[in-house]
């Protein structure tokens, strides 16, 4: 179930993006699963439709979701490139929230890849 914490410093669209990403990564949402419409999810969460639409657009850009016009929004077919993009975005969000600089974050990735 998706939830938004209005007291969080993380914007609501980003909270949705992170939660949907986590649900796909955990297998709770699978390729081909249909997501709620923008309006319905916005109503359910007490958000503006534009907030939900932004989260969906960003997830489409990540390759995680695909919009099929009037048919709705679906979890995209799985591929390793998409998984890597999702992991990179999740990492970037995490290191930003920890206050690390871009150089520090990249250095950590280099060390991890060398290990």
TrEMBL record:
Keywords: DNA-binding, Transcription, Transcription regulation. Residues 10-78 form the HTH gntR-type domain. Pfam families: GntR. SUPFAM superfamilies: Winged helix' DNA-binding domain (SSF46785). It comes from the Bacteria. Gene3D superfamilies: Winged helix-like DNA-binding domain superfamily/Winged helix DNA-binding domain. PROSITE patterns: HTH_GNTR. InterPro entries: Tscrpt_reg_HTH_GntR, WH-like_DNA-bd_sf, WH_DNA-bd_sf. PANTHER family: HTH-TYPE TRANSCRIPTIONAL REPRESSOR YTRA. This is GntR family transcriptional regulator. It comes from Georgenia daeguensis.
């Amino acid at each position: 179930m998706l939830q938004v914490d209005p007291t969080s410093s993380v914007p609501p669209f980003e909270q949705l993006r992170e939660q949907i990403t986590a649900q796909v990564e955990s297998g709770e949402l699978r390729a081909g699963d249909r997501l709620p419409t923008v309006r319905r999810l916005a109503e359910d969460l007490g958000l503006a439709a534009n907030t939900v639409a932004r989260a969906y657009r960003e997830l489409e850009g990540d390759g995680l979701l695909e919009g099929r016009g009037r048919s709705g929004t679906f979890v995209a077919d799985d591929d390793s490139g998409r998984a890597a993009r999702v992991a990179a975005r999740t990492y970037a969000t995490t290191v930003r929230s920890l206050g690390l600089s871009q150089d520090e974050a990249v250095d950590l990735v280099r060390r991890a890849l060398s290990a």
